[in-house]
Amino acid sequence: MKSLIRRAVFTGFLTLICCAASAQQITPVIAVDRGPNTAEQQQKHYVVMVSLDGFRYDYPKKYGAKHILAIGAKGASAPDGMIPSYPSLTFPNHYTLVTGLYPEHHGIVANSFYDPDRKQTYSMRDSKAVTDGSWYGGVPLWSLAEKQGMRSACFFWPGSEAEIAGERPSYYLHFDNKVDDNKRIDQVMAWLKLPADQRPHFITLYYSDVDHAGHEHGPNSPQVAEAVKHVDELVGRLEKELDGLHLPIDLIVVADHGMERVQGDWITLDKYVSLNDFPTVGSLLYPPNEADAERIYKKLRAADAGFLVYRRAQVPAELHYNSNPREGDPVIIAKGPTMIRANPPPADRPDYLPVGEHGYNPYEMTSMRAIFFAEGPDIRPRSTVKPFENINVFPLVVRILGLESPKVDGSLNVLSGILDASLSDEAQR
Ligand code: AMP
Ligand code: ZN
Ligand code: ZN
């Protein structure tokens, strides 16, 4: 490992420096010693990017998320939502948000997938894979910042636990959803109260409450209403405390995808053709040769069940899901909100059918759309934007932070209208 990692006893460390955290705090922040922010970067603005997993685009009004709506009223919003990349799952989309690349270009094409070249499986539940940078393509925002002498910090974000493009965030944590919600904000505030040379300019923060409630109870449940209210209060607290710092901070609140109520029971593909002789992950299929791929494609197409089947190269272009071997071949795409898998689970595992799910084609199901809100010194007050693809968030953040950018799939033109005049004019040039 190239970077020098100090497994900081941050409990005491940050408490000592910032007096912001309580003495009992046991947040195991990992600090990577990258030296101070360069003099140039110390002059830059700050971005705090919050992800509320599974926060569907229409939840703010539907459930009266007053703090989130207030951010939109003061700053920018996408009232009809932000369009996730396909598949509308957590890991592909969080990593798209920070790289500006479609999943098939950054390589995290699902929460779990097989790589036929490596002959290995990646899974978001496997800490060895999640922390192995060789799975991840592109340059995530924290790595981009660090490369250019700007400090960054991640309070959870898919990819943040791995060394990617030769860099890590200066401060990060291993994912543990049990970490208290308010303690996460305490830590963000502690980071922002560090001396200017150590203070991160790009910070991520993550909450999964709304996604969990959506899966367990469905998008129209009182439990989702409750979870929305809870994370809205957290955003309200964060916004208020950020305000009190009197630093030039832009707050961006996004989600990775939406949520839809599941219809029917599991569709298990091996009912139509045997899928036992080669790797499968979820509904992803990795037959070993062309003949098998074509045979399976024909059988599944003949099944005419609740899914579409494509040879990978034929997947509709708008999904940007036709060129990476990790996507498998053939590719199965759900027609509606149904649960699809290749093989049944092992006999000893209970067969769980969620009430709500996502992952579906966002161009066929608007319920897959996510929230986008932003406010701060670089955001044009009371601006709105039509539904846009989430690949375009990366160029926005890069612009605000004044970083040099690699070429990505997203473009600054899409969101330049929500930038303050000084920044958007430059963007047009
Ligand atoms: P899904 O709804 O299946 O797309 O996945 C959402 C789940 O991913 C969340 O409920 C979290 O528990 C989990 N998750 C989110 N971020 C991370 C992370 N950085 N590392 C591991 N798991 C995560
Ligand atoms: Zn998610
Ligand atoms: Zn989910």
What does this structure look like?
By secondary structure, the chain is an alpha/beta fold. It has two domains: 45-257 and 364-428, Alkaline Phosphatase, subunit A (3-Layer(aba) Sandwich), CATH 3.40.720.10; 267-353, Gyrase A, domain 2 (2-Layer Sandwich). Helices cover 30% and strands 16% of the residues. The chain is built from 14 helices and 22 strands. The strands form seven sheets. Strands 1-2-9-8-10-3-11-20-4-21 form a ten-stranded mixed sheet, sandwiched between helices. Strands 5-22 form a two-stranded parallel ribbon. Strands 6-7 form a two-stranded antiparallel ribbon. A hairpin with a 2-residue loop joins strand 14 (280-281) and strand 15 (284-285). It is globular. The protein binds adenosine monophosphate and zinc ion (ZN) (2 copies). Adenosine monophosphate binds next to helix 10.
Q: Descriptors for this entry?
A:
Gyrase A, domain 2, 429 residues, binds adenosine monophosphate, 14 helices, binds zinc ion, disordered N terminus, 22 strands, single chain, alpha/beta
Helix/strand layout:
Elements: E1 5-6, H1 10-18, E2 30-32, H2 39-42, E3 46-52, H3 59-62, H4 66-74, E4 76-77, E5 82-83, H5 90-99, H6 103-106, E6 112-115, E7 120-123, H7 127-130, H8 141-147, E8 152-155, E9 171-172, H9 181-192, E10 202-207, H10 209-217, H11 222-245, E11 249-254, E12 260-261, E13 267-268, E14 280-281, E15 284-285, H12 290-303, E16 307-310, E17 331-334, E18 340-341, E19 356-357, E20 372-375, E21 383-384, E22 388-389, H13 393-401, H14 421-428
Parallel strand pairs: 3-10, 3-11, 4-21, 5-22, 8-9, 8-10, 13-18
Antiparallel strand pairs: 1-2, 2-9, 4-20, 6-7, 11-20, 12-19, 14-15, 16-17
